[in-house]
Amino acid sequence: MTYPLDISIIVPLYNEKESLPELVAWTSKVMKENGLSYEIILVDDGSRDGSWETVKALAAQDASIRGISFRRNYGKSAALFHGFEQACGRVVATMDADLQDSPEELPEMYRMVTEEGWDVVSGWKKHRVDNALTKNLPSKLYNATARLITGIKLHDMNCGIKAYRNEVVKNIEVYGEMHRYIPYLAKNAGFEKITEKPVHHSKRKYGTTKFGMERFLNGFLDLLSLWFLSVFGKKPMHLFGFGGILMFLTGFVMAVCIIAAKLIHQSAGTPFRAVTDQPLFYLSLVALLIGAMFFLAGFICEMISRNATERNRYNIKERF
What we know:
single chain; Spore Coat Polysaccharide Biosynthesis Protein SpsA, Chain A; alpha/beta; seven-stranded mixed β-sheet; 320 residues; elongated
């Protein structure tokens, strides 16, 4: 497939008016020096500081700049989703607007995708300049958890600067706050050639960060959701059915043991406790009820899955 441009660079932004002129000038300079045809897609995520006016002024001076503006703040995932829709380059790169990512990394990432055949090249901020307590340590824990669950050996899953083959971004859907896990989305879509490249990381030059500590908790919950959907999304009964059988059998065996013990003691004429006087009996009832509820949940999920419009959507590599 032929593409009209070598690279599309998507820059989601929120209240980054001061950094935009420098970022655009720097990126354009790097692309021209490396002989790459390019477009810069600036996605304004509902800024209130006049960022959109700056985007329009920059676009009036440079035809390679395109802009998308949201009426309100929807989040980085929404910005990337619409940027991916509009991208027409052979390689699609993403980069944050705060000047902490260096456009100097993009030509080498482009080469790794086009010449080495990688589907995804993720940046790795090997030497971070952020606060060690509030950024570095939580980031290390977060990435260790992500590697364990996803099986993707990336040191910095959430790094803003990445490069993808165009086909990758056209076959994934980024929503909610799933921008942190685009490599995992790509893997689940069948694009498993994923690697990383150490990148230069700079201190924020203008403004303040738009993300707080809550992003780590939200990121972990999103990761669990993605894992569940990728493993059990089309077969939910495999999870709920197994859990239901396990809980139901546990409760059934406990109840049988309690009743059998009572009957044995009764027939032998020895003292015994009434079944309803034993806490274990009520635990067995709870286990039986939970098992039945798991089964019902599994059946409901199966009905939803079988009627979903996505149930027979598969990514086809090629056909003839």
